[in-house]
Structure formats: structure tokens, C-alpha cells
User: Which sequence fits this backbone?
């Protein structure tokens, strides 16, 4: 079993600005880069998901790196251990900083991907932080009376296998931190300003609630990318995380 030490990882965010990840849910690279360039210094981290990555491939990641942006590649890997480990090795070569794997892929697969990042870090090479997706937020809790029990259990097996942390909604942050402590990194999507439109999100939370609950990063898509003034909303998100 491999154990990483996320507290000593230089990628753990230091400032509120470093905690904001903007989801580039766009169908093509041109539109996505227009948004990146419009946001400029107001945003350091971007999430690239399946839609954009399958359209543009790794060259888009190069365009983000040229702009000195951090990359969260959200491909939610779920396969046999050897395939997942090889995939993480390929992603590391593309300069990905943070990436997702499905925890239900199983203990052997999680240990295999963790072994790859531990090996790369051991050689002084960069490797993405690995965060586990426990239960997709589109799925109902198996036990509505105890809505986070399955998530907390899966999260425990993820860190036991050496993953760096998890992706989870804001409401799960308290139960996760309570059960597993402050060390694993936590990425919370579904973030809205109090007056914001929920869109299709069921589990939403504010930036300040996410940070108070123990989130390291928040992921924000449409509230910023569909705003009339995306820079102003990005700055508002950061100010709320700073308690301003
Ligand atoms: O536009 P919005 O802020 O809802 O976008 C949230 C982003 O976070 C999307 O890219 C979505 O796929 C992602 N995400 C999520 N819930 C999860 C995991 C990822 O909303 N549990």
C-alpha cells in the first residue's frame, strides 16, 4: 500500500485564489480559450472534462500550460488496474495537476494508480493529485436515512489505497472530514453564490460554506462562464472564500 503526504504537496492551495477551479464545459477549444483569456489573472486553475478533452485532446492542455494555468483533468477513470495505472502515467506526462478516478473501480485499481504517482514523485517528477469520485451526485443515496454513509466508507477505502483525496458535494464535507480527518484533499463542485441559479445541480453550496466545511478547492462552471461579467463573479467567489 502506498501513502502520499498531501499536506507537504506544493499543489495544496495556499491562497483563496488558488482554491478556485473554473470548469471549462465548452464544446471546443477556441471558445474555451476565449474564456480563459477573458478571465486572465482572476483564475489560476481550470477543469477540463470529457466534452472538451474528447474534442481537443492533449493539445488543449498544452494551451493551458502555455498560459501558466493549473490543470484539473476530470476524466473519471474506471477500468482494470493496469489500464488505469497506464492512463495516469500518460496524464502525468501531459502536466496534469489534479485528476479523478472512480473509487468503485476497486482497491487493486486504486492502489495501482497510487503506486504510479508515488513512483513519479519518488523520482522527483511531477504527478497529478489523485482524487476519488465516490458516489456520483446524480445517483440517489442507497440509504436516505444515512445519506453519506456509503460515501464516507468509499472515501476511506480510497485513502487507504493511497489516493490523495476526493471530489464531493459541500454537504458531504463535514461527514468526510469528521470520519477521515484534515489530511486528504477535498474538491467541492456545485458551488453557487447565495442569489445564484442552481441550474441542474441538486447538491449546491456557497464558496464560504465549502471552505468552512474543509474544502481545499471549489469547482465553479456556469455561474462564472455564463455570467455577463465572468471576472466579477470569479472575484466574488474568491472574496467569499477569504471571508470578505
Ligand atoms: O456549471 P456548474 O458549476 O454546475 O459545473 C460544475 C462542474 O463540476 C461540472 O463540470 C460538473 O461536471 C462537475 N461535477 C459536478 N458534480 C460532481 C462532480 C463533478 O458538478 N459530483
Assistant:
Amino acid at each position: 500500500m502506498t501513502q502520499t503526504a498531501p499536506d507537504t504537496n506544493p499543489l495544496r492551495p495556499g491562497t483563496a485564489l488558488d482554491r478556485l477551479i473554473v470548469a471549462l464545459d465548452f464544446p471546443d477549444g477556441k471558445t474555451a480559450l476565449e474564456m480563459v483569456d477573458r478571465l486572465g489573472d482572476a483564475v489560476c486553475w481550470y477543469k477540463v472534462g470529457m466534452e472538451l478533452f474528447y474534442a481537443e485532446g492533449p493539445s488543449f492542455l498544452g494551451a493551458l500550460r502555455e498560459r501558466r494555468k493549473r490543470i484539473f483533468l476530470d476524466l473519471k477513470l474506471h477500468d482494470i488496474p493496469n489500464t488505469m495505472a497506464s492512463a495516469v502515467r500518460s496524464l502525468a506526462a501531459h502536466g496534469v495537476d489534479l485528476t479523478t478516478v472512480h473509487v468503485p473501480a476497486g482497491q487493486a485499481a486504486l492502489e495501482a494508480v497510487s503506486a504510479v504517482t508515488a513512483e513519479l514523485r519518488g523520482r522527483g517528477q511531477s504527478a497529478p493529485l489523485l482524487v476519488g469520485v465516490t458516489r456520483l451526485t446524480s445517483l440517489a443515496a442507497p440509504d436516505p436515512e444515512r445519506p453519506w454513509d456509503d460515501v464516507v466508507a468509499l472515501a476511506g477505502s480510497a485513502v487507504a489505497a493511497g489516493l490523495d483525496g476526493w471530489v464531493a458535494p459541500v454537504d458531504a464535507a463535514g461527514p468526510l472530514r469528521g470520519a477521515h480527518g484534515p489530511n486528504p484533499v477535498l474538491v467541492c463542485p456545485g458551488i453557487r453564490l447565495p442569489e445564484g441559479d442552481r441550474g441542474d445541480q441538486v447538491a449546491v453550496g456557497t464558496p464560504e460554506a465549502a471552505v468552512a466545511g474543509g474544502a481545499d478547492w471549489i469547482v465553479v462552471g456556469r455561474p462564472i462562464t455564463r455570467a455577463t461579467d465572468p471576472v466579477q463573479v470569479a472575484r466574488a467567489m474568491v472574496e467569499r472564500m477569504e471571508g470578505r
In short: The first helix runs from residue 16 to 19. The longest strand covers residues 70-77. Residues 1-6 have pLDDT under 50 and may be disordered.
